[in-house]
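Q: Sequence in, structure out?
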Amino acid sequence: MNADPLLPLELLQPGEWADVAEVMGEASWVSRLAELGLRVGSRLRLLQPGWPCLLQVGGCRLSLRGEGGTQILVRPVAC
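A: Exactly. Output:
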């Protein structure tokens, strides 16, 4: 088990990498994010903070609007 602290997505700094630890919210919203590659265990990089924020997930870029990001907990990693 990894003891590193979990942070809300919005606390990442631009350019910082993190592993998704938890995605919470409405089931249809969580399912849609998983279809887009944002699921527990996936690695992402914050490209642009704020709302909307811009993420790199795999080889794709994903923009999240509103407060959906507050329901995503991540574990920062050094890359």
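The first strand starts at residue 7 and ends at 8.
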